[in-house]
Design a protein that fits this description.
The complex is a heterodimer of chains A (173) and B (279). Chain A is an all-alpha fold and 173 residues long. In chain A, 72% of the residues lie in helices and 0% in strands. With 279 residues, chain B is α+β, with helices and mostly antiparallel strands. Chain B folds into two domains: 50 residues, no CATH class; 209 residues, no CATH class. Chain B is 35% helix and 18% strand. A six-stranded antiparallel beta sheet of chain B has the order 1-8-7-6-5-4. In chain B, helix 1 packs across helix 3 and helix 4 packs across helix 7. Classes of the chains: A mainly alpha (173), B alpha+beta (279). The interface between A and B is large, with 61 and 61 residues.
Chain lengths: 173, 279
């Protein structure tokens, strides 16, 4: 585990964490622009409440938790406001040469689409464990849910995702 | 004779994939995988789903940290340091704590133990809520019904930012005025820790309400934060911003290191001096 306990200052640690925060936010909400808004809010809140972070514990999980809470707030607000239409740039039209790259991008785009169909609470668990590599216990702490719930949500999420990707693969080829 | 195949649950298979099982369970699954093709198939599907997402969102890892985030970090720590260096007896950031904290908020570090004075009460001006969308600090434009994130966003066409800015230049707080078919209500003025003058304001048009903070630097008003909100359905006017919206406002105030609201006289003086930090 390489979190910045001890050596780096909180400011350096937070700055170094930004790329992962952006990935986390992107995976949570599926839209790069919204993701950066979330990251912004998370950074502001984290700095404002830095005194509440306990040195010696993982800074990344703590900020992930703040970001996730902000995301949940956003979801609530969006539900009241109505859906936001998302235009994800799916593979720009490249020359025949770059076919493999395009295929790879399409696969990623499909994966992101499939992720988007998961219920929010399943996606959160999947992102923390499957992308951020948190342990079940860390994910449970981050989301304030029991570890058993982490396991069952993760299980449902992966199963749904597997089924979805399989169907997509079948129709795409 | 081989033993009958045990049934492993998906949860167990996932835990196997994630390295969350005890060694003996792990070994048992590995043994079964060799003789149970069904089990191997299930594990493969789960692993494939896992592998598919593992790098699907990696794009930001290869990108430089956006300027706005670096700026937010700088501003956040600058505000903290300013706060630590000069804890003003009568308020500074503490005044903002008078806003009720949102549910996930932490107890205020320095809750003022004094009754809300008239000036402090001004800070508690109800902020449009009901729904909230945040645009982070460092400039946001909004368009149509919703808000458009600042970076790379097209200029807000439906909200007259220029007119709002022009009105903020000359309108005293607490007197609403008509701007481009909507109503602009400058709420109050304050000075940020870096010396700039800032104004909290509300803008509404046909039932859509927004609250924001603008600061003037280099002769131009820039939006620091905007919160979208609508009057509460109860018809009792605006309710307190909550959740992300309230936090965003509080975060912006804190990041700016906002001082006490200016008195009417001070505000008039600042206005006469074109809100120049030197005035």
């Amino acid at each position: 585990m390489t979190d910045a306990r001890g050596s780096a200052s909180p400011r350096e640690a937070l700055t170094a964490l930004v790329p992962r925060l952006r990935r986390f936010a992107y995976a949570l909400c599926g839209h790069p622009g919204d993701a950066d808004d979330l990251v912004q809010v998370a950074l502001e809140r984290a700095i404002m409440r830095l005194d509440q972070w306990q040195p010696g514990t993982r800074l990344d999980s703590w900020v992930f938790r703040i970001l996730h809470n902000a995301h949940v707030d956003d979801i609530r607000a969006k539900k009241r406001r109505g859906t936001v239409v998302d235009i994800d740039d799916v593979a720009g039209l490249a020359g025949g040469d770059a076919e493999r790259a395009v295929q790879a991008r399409l696969d990623l785009a499909r994966t992101r689409e499939a992720m988007d169909t998961l219920p929010d609470e399943q996606r959160s668990v999947l992102v923390l464990v499957g992308i951020e590599g948190l342990s079940y216990q860390e994910a449970a702490d981050t989301l304030s849910i029991p570890i058993g719930t982490v396991m069952s949500r993760l299980s449902r999420a992966r199963k749904a995702l597997a089924a979805r990707l399989e169907t997509q693969g079948a129709t795409a080829r | 004779m081989t033993a009958p195949l045990p049934t492993w649950t998906d949860e167990q298979l996932n835990a196997f994939l994630d390295g969350e099982l005890y060694d003996d369970t792990c070994a048992a699954i590995e043994r079964d995988l060799e003789r149970d093709t069904d089990l191997a198939g299930r594990l493969e599907a789960l692993a494939a789903a896992n592998a598919a997402i593992a790098h699907a969102f990696d794009a930001p890892l290869d990108q430089p940290v956006p300027e706005r985030h670096l700026a937010a970090i700088e501003a956040g720590f600058a505000a903290r340091e300013a706060q630590a260096a000069a804890p003003r007896q009568d308020g500074n950031v503490t005044a903002f704590r008078l806003r009720p904290r949102p549910a996930d908020g932490a107890p205020a570090r320095t809750a003022p133990a004094r009754p809300a004075s008239e000036r402090a009460a001004r800070w508690a001006t109800p902020i449009a809520a009901g729904l909230a969308l945040v645009i982070g600090a460092a400039g946001g434009l909004f368009a149509g019904q919703g808000l458009v994130p600042a970076p790379g966003a097209p200029a807000g066409e439906t909200v007259p930012l220029l007119q709002v800015a022009a009105a903020l230049e000359d309108a005293p707080s607490s007197s609403p005025l008509a701007v481009s078919g909507g109503t602009l209500q400058p709420v109050l003025s304050f000075r940020a820790a870096d010396g700039r003058f800032c104004r909290e304001f509300q803008w509404s048009k046909r039932g859509d309400a927004f609250s924001g903070i603008a600061c003037k630097s280099d002769g131009q008003w820039g939006i620091e934060v905007m919160i979208a909100g609508a009057p509460a359905a109860s018809g009792e006017g605006f309710t307190q911003a909550s959740g992300a919206g309230g936090m965003a406002l509080e975060a912006a105030l804190s990041a700016l290191g906002a001082g006490e609201p200016l008195s009417a006289e001070d505000e008039a003086r600042a206005m006469a001096g074109d809100w120049s930090p030197a005035s």
